[in-house]
Amino acid sequence: MSVFLRGGIAGGFLIRSRDSSAVITKQRRISSVGAVTGPSVNPTAAIEQRATWLPGLEPPPYLDGKLAGDYGFDPLGLGEDPKSLKWYVQAELVHARFAMLGVAGILFTDLLRTTGISNLPVWYDAGATKFDFASTKTLIVVQFLLMGFAETKRYMDFVSPGSQAAEGSFFGLEAALEGLEPGYPGGPLLNPLGLAKDIKNANDWKLKEIKNGRLAMMAMLGFFVQASVTHTGPIDNLVEHLSNPWHKTIIQTLFTSTS
Question: What pLDDT was estimated at residue 179?
Answer without folding.
Answer: 66
